[in-house]
């Protein structure tokens, strides 16, 4: 029996890839393709829009459906609205949207007491593995007498609205928890002076159609480590979201990460 999936943000760059990959896999069935009321593609067939042929699923606004699980790749306010819908109808939710503010973060955490939620800034298995490797590197380098300067560079397509990426912020959190840096700065200009040891620097590049890359630099005196992961297209995220949907379907209420999903 195929798992019934509702995709929220279905006409977006990511939503279209989730629709495309799910429709090519007999384990999944797209039963709802959700978009904002004002989206110009409202009513169009989600499969035709995603370039995989007619699915008989028109883009629609959030409403009752027989979906087993909802996958969200949208914008923060809309993700929060679909979360409220999932609470009302007791549906598991995979949240891939990034750029939430603190009250929205809190609402997601609170909601996970009532329904199962996978929430991750990157659904990519490779990115999540690199987070583990980064944690290992950060713990190993923490006490190096010469000190270690951590800089995080992320590069994304020109259309991305939030900066730095949710993934870059998560890398920074992992490093800070392992090494103890208390200052997080975003870019540098002017005359900031000698680099403080207690700082993580973030640099958000926006360029062309880049689907996402992250580099974590551990700079020491005499040598440098760079950990890098780069997507060549968006299917790593879409496939990861489908794996998460598959995993969460029979889980009790709770807040889950991709580490839980992937057993990392
Ligand atoms: N966790 C992960 O692995 C990944 C996360 N992301 C994140 O996912 C999000 C989406 O990325 P991407 O697909 O590139 O962005 P897009 O802008 O291409 O897609 C977002 C879609 O959500 C739609 N939307 C806006 N408002 C609503 C609403 N009220 N109800 C339903 N749909 C709505 C947008 O419609 P409209 O155009 O009309 O605004 C758009 O079609 C971003 O936050 C991004 O950072 C992206 C890739 C991977
Ligand atoms: O907007 C994107 O494209 C991406 N956003 C996510 C993020 O903000 O971390 C994940 C991925 O890097 C692609």
From TrEMBL:
Dihydrodipicolinate reductase C-terminal domain location: 127-262
Predominant cellular place of this UniProt entry's protein: cytoplasm
Pathway(s) this gene product operates in, as recorded in its UniProt entry: Amino-acid biosynthesis; L-lysine biosynthesis via DAP pathway; (S)-tetrahydrodipicolinate from L-aspartate: step 4/4
Active site (UniProt): 156 (proton donor/acceptor), 160 (proton donor)
Pfam families xref list: DapB_C, DapB_N
Keywords noted in UniProt: Amino-acid biosynthesis, Cytoplasm, Diaminopimelate biosynthesis, Lysine biosynthesis, NAD, NADP, Oxidoreductase
Amino-acid positions noted as binding (S)-2,3,4,5-tetrahydrodipicolinate in the UniProt annotation, renumbered to this chain: 157, 166-167
Localization in the cell: Cytoplasm
Complexes and interactors: Homotetramer.
NCBIfam families: dapB
Protein name (record): 4-hydroxy-tetrahydrodipicolinate reductase
High-level lineage: Bacteria, Pseudomonadati, Planctomycetota, Planctomycetia, Pirellulales
